[in-house]
Automatic annotation (TrEMBL), chains A, B:
Catalysed reactions, as listed in the record: (R)-methylmalonyl-CoA = (S)-methylmalonyl-CoA
Protein name: methylmalonyl-CoA epimerase
Pfam families on file: Glyoxalase_4 (PF13669)
Classification via PROSITE patterns: VOC
């Protein structure tokens, strides 16, 4: 069912410092910051040859990653995102297996303008999993 | 400097349960467990089209991931591994930039029989980073 690893998301408390680390120290190709007010984050894409790292920084007062940064002051890996061919079929299979889909269970339009869902980390070895329609 | 994302490593407290989740629930291609006594872990490779997930389970009494599992009982994302063309040049550049290389700073032979180094998570937004010679 799952296909490519679309990205690994890393929450960062200081976006400029994180950009400098990935661009200047690790020598990676780094995008300009992209504000995504609908998602409560500013995102920077680190483009690797085979996948992406996404740096996430809180935007606005109700950012979904603020709680994570409150618990992890230096930042940390927030989630992994796998691509699926058919997100509704994937969701229904997962629910039938007893896996918990976060929110109301309906796909939302994600940071890449494609439908996404998040799965409960306790059902996946402490890993927050995002599924994105390929 | 950094190239492909070689893998994302996820520490798991129950290897059989994690295998079942990735193979049967997420429908991924999952290897048999590989004991790596020199590294204190048993590893299962989840083969995605563009990269790998590595499930890590403690092996022996001094496993380097036991402390992580003591703090994260359900498991969690342990590290990301980036490939580099020349691990000694990468190490020297990182040290010159003030980044901390773990251990004695000399590359060790890693789980894929290639030289690897680990970098201090506090220098990389709370993310434990492994570098592997490509």
């Amino acid at each position: 069912m799952i296909g490519r690893l679309n990205h690994v998301a890393i929450a960062v408390p200081d976006l400029d410092a994180a950009i400098a680390t990935y661009r200047d120290v690790l020598g990676a190709k780094v995008s300009k910051p992209v504000a995504q007010p609908a998602h409560g984050v500013t995102v920077v894409f680190i483009e690797l040859p085979n996948t992406k790292i996404e740096l996430l920084h809180p935007l606005g007062e109700k950012s979904p990653i603020q709680g994570f940064l409150d618990k992890n002051a230096t930042g940390g890996i927030h989630h992994v995102c796998y691509e699926v061919e058919d997100i509704l079929a994937a969701r229904d299979k997962l629910k039938a297996e007893g896996m918990r889909v976060l929110g109301d269970g309906e796909p939302k339009i994600g940071a890449h303008d494609k439908p996404v869902l998040f799965l409960h980390p306790k059902d996946f070895n402490g890993t927050l999993v995002e599924l994105e329609q390929a």
